[in-house]
Design a protein that fits this description.
Layout (H helix, E strand, L loop, with lengths): L1 H24 L6 H8 L3 H7 L3 H21 L7 H10 L6 H16 L5 H24 L5 H24 L7 H16 L2
Helix pairs in contact: 1-2, 1-4, 2-3, 4-6, 4-7, 5-7, 5-9, 7-8, 8-9
């Protein structure tokens, strides 16, 4: 069992090296050599774990989605639908170093999807998960909405959240984020009023 844990840790270490490379130099700089150097491992060691660049990128994207999903799932409900909605949606915004890094990497990997088709399924899964979360929030705030209207509101909420995330990413990491949270609060209030 310890060998399995070491392999899992090595995979995560290499994925994090991919993320660092993408943030510093862009996805075009990701190669077996550059990632091995970033991780401080021999090229042969990296190739043993990830024989190809595509496999390395795929795992890096999957790990990013998994970590973001775990953070959302770890959000403890408070019993107040509006408070819970904001807590959940906040995870989709780059307001913390981890979530900012994940969004930067996600956008780079989305841009790489035409060259690495394995990334397309991960991109689609990520989009689907955001829409499922948005639908959950809509259903919790306005449970009486008919399914077609609830689905439309969920798509609107997902699009709003994606737009806010891009706007936050375009500003410096230390810039205020409260304005984006206020936009979400306004949207949550609007959805609550539909109930």
């Amino acid at each position: 069992m310890p060998r399995r844990i070491d392999l899992d840790q090595r995979r995560e270490q290499l994925a994090e090296a991919v993320w660092s490379t993408i943030r510093r130099s862009g996805v075009g700089a990701v190669s077996v050599r550059t990632v091995a150097a970033e991780a401080g491992v021999a090229v042969g060691s990296l190739r043993h774990v990830f024989p190809t660049r595509a496999e390395l990128l795929r795992f890096s994207a999957e790990l990013m989605v998994r970590r973001a999903t775990e953070r959302v799932r770890a959000t403890a409900p408070s019993g107040d639908a509006s408070v819970d909605a904001l807590a959940l949606l906040r995870h989709l915004l780059p307001t913390q170093p981890d979530s900012r890094t994940e969004l930067e990497v996600q956008l780079a990997l989305i841009a790489e999807a035409p060259a690495v088709p394995a990334l397309t399924a991960i991109r689609d899964q990520s989009v689907h998960q955001v829409r499922v979360l948005a639908r959950h929030v809509v259903d919790s705030l306005a449970p009486e909405l008919a399914p077609p209207r609830a689905e439309a509101e969920a798509l609107r909420l997902a699009a709003l959240t994606d737009g806010l995330a891009l706007q936050l990413l375009a500003q410096p990491a230390d810039a205020p984020v409260e304005w984006a949270l206020d936009v979400l609060r306004d949207e949550i209030a609007r959805l609550s009023a539909l109930a």
